């Protein structure tokens, strides 16, 4: 392939041995997927939306399992920082669950998607500002890499790009609802952290 290589979620060639870089890249992937859902229609929009739902579910679950517990312990004022982030995540997850079963061509889909986008982006900015920057200052490269490994285990469950021939409606249905994906993500993350 002659095209320039752009790192994306699930890409092992990307530099992602630092949990903060990895999560910030996922924030970028999430932004790109919102763009894709907005710019497309019909089957293409449906598929892009499925990828967005999966990445959001996997991303937030991994944060809740890996970086929030660390921030709570290690950052000054960490308890409050994490409580605020969890409240934002809870709100975003509720909107996500409501949108998940929706027909992406429904006239009420786009206004709800835009609301979700606004909430998710404000949340991501707050994480980057109040949590991620401080995480990097509070630990060493070994721990950043250990946390990154757990995030990567989660990320493997959420491809951000279409895989021709795989992304059929049937394949998407087989993935099950968001709640089940979050459970599987939790298990994968805990395994990667050696917790079970
Ligand atoms: Fe989050
Ligand atoms: Fe995040």
Description:
- The protein is mainly alpha-helical and 196 residues long.
- The protein has one domain (19-189).
- The protein has eight helices and no strands.
- The termini are far apart.
- The relative contact order is 0.18.
- One fe (ii) ion binds next to helix 1, helix 2 and helix 5.
What's the story with the biggest beta sheet? none
Residues in β-strands, percent: under 5%
Shape: globular
Radius of gyration (CA) equals 17 Å
Unreliable segments (pLDDT under 50, ≥5 consecutive)? 1-7, 170-174
Whole-number mean pLDDT:
86
| Count of the domains | 1
Oligomer: single chain
Helix proportion? over 70%
**What is the chain-wise order of helices and strands?**
HHHHHHHH
The hetero molecules present are:
fe (ii) ion
Helical stretch tally: 8
Structural class: mainly alpha
Protein name: Hemerythrin HHE cation binding domain-containing protein
Pfam family, one: Hemerythrin
InterPro entries: Hemerythrin-like
Domain Hemerythrin-like: 19-132
